[in-house]
Amino acid sequence: MVLAQLGGSISRALQQMSNATIIDEKVLNDCLNEITRALLQSDVQFKLVRDMQTNIKKIVNLDDLAAGHNKRKIIQQAVFNELCTILDPGKPAFTPKKGKPSVVMFVGLQGSGKTTTCTKYAYYHQKKGYKPALVCADTFRAGAFDQLKQNATKAKIPFYGSYTESDPVRIAVEGVERFKKENCDLIIVDTSGRHKQEAALFEEMRQVSESTKPDLVLFVMDSSIGQAAFDQAQAFKQSVPVGAVIVTKMDGHAKGGGALSAVAATKSPVIFIGTGEHMDEFEIFDVKPFVSRLLGMGDWSGFMDKIQEVVPMDQQPELLQKLSEGNFTLRIMYEQFQNILKMGPIGQVFSMLPGFSQELMPKGQEKESQTKIKRYMTMMDSMTNEGKFILHKHIQNLLTELDSSNPKIMNESRIIRIARGCGRPIRDVMDMLEEYKRLAKVWSKMKGLKIPKKGDMSAL
Ligand code: GDP
Questions:
Q1: Helix 287-294 with 71-87: angle, nearest 10 deg
Q2: If we measure between CA atoms, which residue out of 225, 2, 253, 279 comes closest to residue 115?
Q3: Residues of the chain with CATH 3.40.50.300
Q4: 43-49 LR contacts (CB < 8 Å, sep 24+)
Q5: 178, exposed or middle or buried, with CB in 10 Å at 0-12, 13-18, 19+?
Q6: Which end of the chain has fewer CB atoms < 10 Å from its terminal CB, N or C?
Q7: Quick one: fold of 311-444?
Q8: Neighbours of 367 (CB within 10 A)
Q9: Nearest CA owner, ligand 1 atom 12
Q10: Which CATH code fits 3-87?
Q11: What's the CA gap between 143 and 351, in Å, rounded?
Q12: CA distances from 228 to 62, 74, 231, 255, 263 (A)
């Protein structure tokens, strides 16, 4: 994601500051200037950036800080807090409840990614146990219904629309009624998008909104417009009660930071971001975990959200227990690779884990990383036996030994034997073990992680 560039620049600035022997006015100014430059490049509004700089300087008064104070930590915390303030709309968004019908109406300009996002939103909630349904009230764009129908069919989500009816209000009302009768608890209405903000579009939106009485109006916008997102969001808010925003195409535009902060300035919460064209390239957006991830500090709540999605409920406590023990074995690595491959786009998952992203998956090399993980796994597993997944004998031995001792036992002859056993070059086995050692180090940092009670991930 392009935001990684912004995050990288800010983390580098903080790192350089941390590396300085003494933190004085100059070091602090250099650091803040670097951060300012990165934010402006991401199209964050100048006033917001200037205010941020002033606030940090006020908080971090180097002269007043006694010698014992950890200046680096105070500065880092201040940067973190200020970035959160820039992105915080100060208002929570409506969350649909399972089992109770909610109507969510999508609005936005044509090409913003609205129709794609409708399905992503439905699919995301379906995976969380909701019963979503899609209604195509976009009668303006030829092919809109076909697009929604195709996406909905792929995701196995019920849909409603018409090739012949030209009144969007009528379709919206009929669709909502039908799905309420069918006990769907998340009825999503896709409305027409136009090329620009036209009066007719707003009037149509207003009518659909009045007749379907949505619990939430979701405004979808393309991140490439950067800080111009402020005016666009305001214009939509004046016509319909926009309750939340989804910013799309965060994978391809350097202005993502600008768009996010501009939306926050309109006091509308951004609840999801789109990070690609595929159905699962869609992430929940929460300010603190997002900033934490931006600064390379990981995003535990996002990671836990993913774990909840793919790890069966009864296995979650065991995995969390292993995490909190900080004891990383090759067997855990194997299991985690399996999970990671199940979790969806690999970049998304790794970027939530501190330490995993930069080295195992360098930016822009997601495909290669995925291949690498698969190669490690091929080395570790091998055959299917009566439908049961079993580990290769050599690897199994290796796992058993590593489970009970430390990786130092991996002497040369053992590595040669493993390579021969799984038919891979020695270099590949060495490579895998190196990765293991590195991840074990990262994993050990998780020691002492607070384990939430079963089903309660919010504690993290
Ligand atoms: P609509 O006119 O607003 O309904 O827009 P569409 O849903 O048809 O999307 C327009 C284009 O943007 C399509 O090619 C989508 O695949 C693409 N798109 C939507 N969301 C994203 C995203 O998050 N990232 C990327 N890269 N492309 C997206």
A1: 130
A2: 279
A3: 102-294
A4: 43/226, 43/227, 43/254, 43/255, 43/257, 43/258, 43/259, 44/86, 44/227, 44/257, 44/258, 44/261, 45/227, 45/230, 45/258, 45/261, 45/262, 45/265, 48/86, 48/261, 48/265
A5: middle
A6: C
A7: 434 Repressor (Amino-terminal Domain) (1.10.260)
A8: 10
A9: 113
A10: 1.20.120.140
A11: 36
A12: 36, 33, 6, 10, 9
Q: Which atom of ligand 1 is nearest to the CA of 275?
A: 23
| Residue 220 CA, closest ligand 1 atom number | 3
Residue pointed to by tokens 């979701």: 218
Q: Cα(222) to centroid of ligand 1, in Å?
A: 8
Task: Give CA angle at 30 (27, 31), nearest 5°.
Answer: 85
Counted residue by residue, the chain has a size of 460
Residue nearest to atom 13 of ligand 1 (CA): 113
Distance 97 CA to ligand 1 centre (A): 27
Question: Residues with beta carbon inside 6 Å of ligand 1?
Answer: 108, 110-116, 193, 248-249, 251-252, 274-277
Ligand 1 centroid to Cα of residue 156, in Å, is 20
Indicate the CATH number for domain 102-294: 3.40.50.300
Write the single-letter amino acid at 22.
Answer: I
Burial (CB count within 10 angstroms: exposed 0-12, middle 13-18, buried 19+), residue 162 = middle
Looking at the chain, which residues constitute the CATH 1.20.120.140 domain(s)?
3-87
Residues of the chain with CATH 1.10.260.30: 311-444
Q: How far is the CA of 277 from the centre of ligand 1 (A)?
A: 6
**Cα of 230 to ligand 1 centre, how many Å?**
20
Q: So what's the ipTM on this one?
A: 0.98
Mutation choice for ligand 1 from 114, 116, 250, CB with most ligand atoms inside 8 A? 116
Q: What are phi and psi of 120, to 5 degrees?
A: -60, -45
